[in-house]
Amino acid sequence: MFIKQLSVFLENKRGRLVEITELIAQAGIDLRAVSLADTSDFGILRVIVDKPDEAEKVLRAAGHTVALTDVIAVGLKDDPGQFSKAIKVLAENNIQVEYMYAFTGNHQGTAYVIMKLDDLDAGIKALNQSGATILTTDDVYNM
């Protein structure tokens, strides 16, 4: 149930994000979710795509520093308090959230959150027991 996330190290220069996204697009790879964190000198682009292994090869071939990381994708009912409930379940089970970002999909009434946890297996178990939906790779890559 893990989703493969691409993490790309970027120099903080104009045009670097365009270069990465154009390489992905030219390879016929579709973006599903994107997060960019930066400092004054560099950034980390985190991307969920429909073909992560292909995207990694394309980016490496172009000389970019890239890594594949296992994350989970959680589907939550888009109602007040549902996100808080999910985070509370993780905290009660001593599961640390390292980072997260959200995206929308084609199912109205559902919000999606990508989570990097210190213990993915325990996080999946706890979230499943709380009633949250853990998305499969097919769910995410085929949105």
UniProtKB/TrEMBL annotation:
Domain ACT: 71-142
InterPro entries named among the record's database cross-references: ACT-like_dom_sf, ACT_dom, ACT_dom_pair
Entries under Pfam families matching the protein: ACT_8
Native species: [Clostridium] methylpentosum DSM 5476
CDD domains referenced in this protein's UniProt entry, alphabetically: ACT_Bt0572_1, ACT_Bt0572_2
The protein, known as: ACT domain protein
